[in-house]
Amino acid sequence: KQEVTQIPAALSVPEGENLVLNCSFTDSAIYNLQWFRQDPGKGLTSLLLIQSSQREQTSGRLNASLDKSSGRSTLYIAASQPGDSATYLCAVAQRGETSGSRLTFGEGTQLTVNP
Amino acid sequence: DAGITQSPRYKITETGRQVTLMCHQTWSHSYMFWYRQDLGHGLRLIYYSAAADITDKGEVPDGYVVSRSKTENFPLTLESATRSQTSVYFCASSDLGARADTQYFGPGTRLTVL
Fold first, then answer.
1. Which of A46, A98, A108 sits opposite B42 (nearest CB)?
2. Is A43–B90 a contact, with Cβ atoms under 8 angstroms apart?
3. What is the CA radius of gyration of chain A?
4. Contact check, Cβ <8 Å, A100/B98
5. Which of A56, A112, B67, B111 could form a disulfide with A12 if both were Cys (CB 3.0 to 4.6 A apart)?
């Protein structure tokens, strides 16, 4: 059974700092890995999707990397802003005939960026 | 507005009652999903559907029933609500499934079972 772990569970940084969020997964047989953002009381918003054949994806100040062999992904946020404060969730799409459409989520990292 | 909507946004019910949570998407996406989010467990998949009239169980399907008679709707029914089903429920959709495509999430329904 796939397990996804995110470290740290919470992170508080001053505005302008560069930061890294970590995600690890136990089964490397994945289709892709996705990073989501969740604001309090809201749904999830997709940030980046990395296919299993890719090493990284970038969108603006966000860069996500994937090392499938070691079961790890990182989300790098450059020049953090108070508006980046949210919970960041990592999810993997598992290979397999019956599970090809499933996402397994980590519990998230709650980020606070202080002005 | 186009997108994915859920109703109701908040629901309080009593143990043993039947409750239906609605999900509607305007993109004509093939895949739709139901998740529940609980402290200590993250998001867990309840059921998903690859197309109209095709549904399959996820990680935690017990106590839930789904149907998909139309592509755009994917209702989730709790046949006899229990306190352990108190949670936030999210519906999501995608065009190609999780294999190659982003999932788009609704705003969630907060359900409290007394």
1. A108
2. yes
3. 14
4. yes
5. A112
Asked if A32 contacts A52 with a C-beta cutoff of 8 angstroms, the reply is yes
pLDDT in tens, B34-88: 999 998 888 999 999 988 888 999 889 999 999 999 999 999 999 999 999 999 9
Instruction: Give the mutation candidate from A44, A47, A50, A104 for the B interface (greatest B CB count, under 10 A).
Output: A44
Shortest Cα distance, chain A CAs vs residue B7, angstroms: 13
Question: Are residues A105 and B44, on separate chains, in Cβ contact within 8 Å?
Answer: yes
Which element (helix H / strand E) includes B32? strand B31-38
- Is the bond preceding A8 in cis, omega lying within 30 degrees of 0? yes
A33-73 residue pLDDT tens: 999 999 988 889 999 999 999 999 999 999 999 999 999 99
